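We give this protein:

***
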Amino acid sequence: MTEGTVSLPWLVIRQDDNGNRYRVGRYATRAEAQKIADSLDDRGHKQLYWVERVGHGNGNRDGGIRN
């Protein structure tokens, strides 16, 4: 990381009923990402939300996630 850049290594991921995964957002800390995932999950939708570190998804560089 260079001066003036921000690292956002934590992703919140949503999976819909059809198994499609989408990136909800990127965050600086795991705690921040988890707070967002929990708040979305608390809304009662049938979607799945979780937190991943960039590059630690299903083995793909982008985690196989759609933007």
